[in-house]
Amino acid sequence: VDSVTGEKLSILMGGLSEGREMFSPLPGVETELTEISQIVKSDLLLNQRFTNPNLAAKINSLNFPVVHIATHGQFSSQVEDTFILTWDGKMNVQEFNSILRSREQKFSRPLELLVLSACQTATGDRRAALGLAGFAVRSGARTTLGTLWQVSDRSTADLMIRFYQELAGHPATSKAKALQMAQLA
Known about the structure:
Elements: E1 10-15, H1 27-39, E2 41-46, H2 52-61, E3 66-70, E4 73-74, E5 83-86, E6 89-92, H3 93-107, E7 113-116, H4 128-139, E8 143-146, H5 153-169, H6 175-184
Parallel strand pairs: 1-2, 1-3, 3-7, 7-8
Antiparallel strand pairs: 4-5, 5-6
Helix pairs in contact: 1-5, 2-3, 5-6
């Protein structure tokens, strides 16, 4: 089934709006996550709460069908250059995949949707799309949504908010159709 109904839709969201390490602030992240949490049932890890241990604990303790990460990240064809940024540092792709896989084993059902909402989540080198695709396959998620190019922080927030409005507001809508409608809006 490619749709996620509004009543079943619940999301674990994590993100950074503040600058960390050498990465700039993403002020749209707080707006994005706050507004999405008003649309659908959510558990939110923002800034200081968005740490590697907290993310791992939430993923493994609650059976959310959707995990939404809004932060800086880099996906490369080189595993060692692939990460998402949390409050306490870079979470490498192998650690993140391991957390998602242990969740799948615990709950005996794959993650419906993994959203990587950030600027350049699929950049790192010319073959970065392979890194994102490989990550998506290894994560076990049925669907992964990420960006392949540099995007505006605010427009990304607008797109993600509209995406969840489409999913929650039209229960029979597929994830692809919800994304298409959000892009058109």
